[in-house]
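In the laboratory, one determines a bound structure by crystallizing the protein with its ligand and collecting diffraction data. In a computational setting the workflow is compressed into a single prediction: the sequence and the ligand go in, and a structural description comes out. We illustrate the idea with MRU.
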Amino acid sequence: MNTINLKSLALKFSYNSDSLHLSLLDQTLLPHQEKWLDIKTTDQMIDAIKKLQVRGAPLIGVAASLQLAQAAFLDFNIDALGQQADALCAARPTAVNLMNCIDRMKKNLISEKSKSSFIQTAIDLFKEDVELCEKISLHGAGLIQDGDNILTHCNTGGLATAGFGTALGIIRKAYDSGKKIHVYVDETRPLLQGARLTTWELEKLNIPCTLITDNMAAQLMSLGKIDKVFVGSDRIAVNGDFANKIGTYSVAVNCHYHKIPFYVAAPFTTVDPTCRDGKDIPIEQRGAGEVRGAQGSFGDVIWAPEKISVYNPSFDVTPAKLTTGWIMDKGVFKQEDILKGCFS
Ligand code: MRU
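The predicted complex, in structure-token form:
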């Protein structure tokens, strides 16, 4: 059997009949250290997902599935794999992509009861995500004009998907097609995905960008310096409300006031038919340490009183009425499409 090699910006997988290797780029150490973690067990993958060493809605689904493939390669025990699948599913609650990928793996396990078919399903999920990113990027790039100043929040690029990304994939596609653009990157407190990860990706791609703290976006908008906003999503309700990294909602409110187009980009698999509206989307609450201070490749700092009470939701919900368009693999959807039930 030939060796299958899968490689993205943040994940490496290789597989043949004798061996299977899975490794992740530790995103908590970026941008200063590029350290790859060998993942050998499901517990290790769960830990990496919880700590955001691997992150981004599409990538955690793909990474969790490839870990199940590894577990099956080592010991194809259907009951044990089912339990590991459930444990992976529970690692983070908001990104529906994680649940969808694990669901696909479990359905295959039950219907085929075949090790090779189970491993192949995880490989397919990786490849499909690459294709979904490409389609989203093509649909979205057409919305960007030469000379646009774009704002983005969090990280939605190659570090968050198996492919080139969703919102950041769109920006990359527009830039690669020759459009002269500039990107304002929201820092994205508390875990600084914008400051640490999106800037790292944009620098590698040579796309002109400027880092701002989250509370600077409205001022830039008031000065007419932002033409469009593109963000990603972890879960979209059938009415178009969507969850994304905390702070996305305030960007959307600011866009509405300043009449700036505000787009969300995601694969259709991010739509959760069981969520009627944003109130049905479960929001992950995270630890107090993330708000009392920060830790990463720069060290460990606490700037708040050590026991101060903290509120730390990892995501917020942006209502559909604040959204100009939903850029999906199947095309760009507008308010009227959502009202006609295109997500139902
Ligand atoms: O907590 P994170 O870093 O996993 O949150 C990521 C986001 O909110 C992204 O915008 C979302 O997952 C879409 S990634 C294509």
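The two ends are 42 Å apart (CA to CA). Keep in mind that any predicted model is a hypothesis to be tested, not a measurement.
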